[in-house]
Every structure is written in structure tokens, then in C-alpha cells.
Design brief:
The protein is of the alpha+beta class. It has 3 helices and 7 strands; from the N terminus they run E-E-E-E-E-H-H-H-E-E. It has a single domain, classed as Arc Repressor Mutant, subunit A. A hairpin with a 4-residue loop joins strand 3 and strand 4.
């Protein structure tokens, strides 16, 4: 078993070639480094901790805003946009984010996939 370096939660079935760096908001996968914004990283970490398990949008919003009590939580459409952006950013590295209608969202990792150079160019 592997523990999350962010919170120490036990992670199940996490591929050996994936690492996360919470101090830099980076994910290391397929031999590449993926830089995320703090909010993208928090969303990814929430899904990563429960790899393959569906998490409700309400639970994701609660996690994203746990440190920001003075701000109103966004509606689920805002979360849908964040998920869409993260989905596009992580897809080339073998991560798949699936929406489960009426249930929530789940993150999956494809078995060690070959990543082509044109898919790994850093985004601006």
C-alpha cells in the first residue's frame, strides 16, 4: 500500500509510475511532469485519493472549499468546468475522468501507456 504524501491517506491500486508533489502542485506520470494550478491540484488530489471510486460533486466542492469558509461555494456547473479542464490536461498522461450521471465523478488510470512527444508539450 502507498500513502498520500499530502495527507497520509492510504491509497489503493495506485500505479507505481505516478507521483504527486503538493509543494509544487505537480503530478509526475508517464515519465513527465504535469504542472497544475492549486485548484486543479486539489481537485486531482481528491480524485486520486479515491482512484476508481465515484465521488459526489457535493463532496468535491466541500473539499475544494474547506480552507475557504469566507467564500461561497460554487455551483456544480463551475465544478463541471474545472473537471473539463483537468480532464483535458490529464488525458495525455493516461488519466481518465468519468462523470457518473447522478452519482459524481471518478478518476481512472490506464495501464502504463506510451506517451507520444506531441502530447506532452507544456501548456502555456
Amino acid at each position: 500500500m502507498t500513502n498520500c504524501p499530502t495527507c497520509g491517506v492510504e491509497l489503493h491500486d495506485i500505479p507505481d509510475d505516478v507521483g504527486i508533489d503538493p509543494s509544487r502542485f505537480e503530478v509526475h506520470a508517464a515519465g513527465k511532469t504535469i504542472r497544475l494550478t492549486p485548484r486543479q491540484f486539489e481537485l486531482f488530489a481528491a480524485l486520486y485519493h479515491k482512484l476508481g471510486i465515484t465521488i459526489s460533486k457535493k463532496a468535491l466542492i466541500a473539499r475544494l472549499y474547506k480552507l475557504r469558509p469566507h467564500r461561497a461555494a460554487p455551483n456544480t456547473k463551475t465544478l463541471d468546468v474545472w473537471i473539463s479542464i483537468l480532464r483535458k490536461k490529464m488525458r495525455p498522461f493516461g488519466f481518465r475522468i468519468e462523470a457518473r450521471w447522478g452519482l459524481g465523478v471518478a478518476l481512472f488510470r490506464e495501464p502504463r501507456m506510451a506517451v507520444t512527444p506531441e502530447l506532452t508539450k507544456d501548456a502555456p
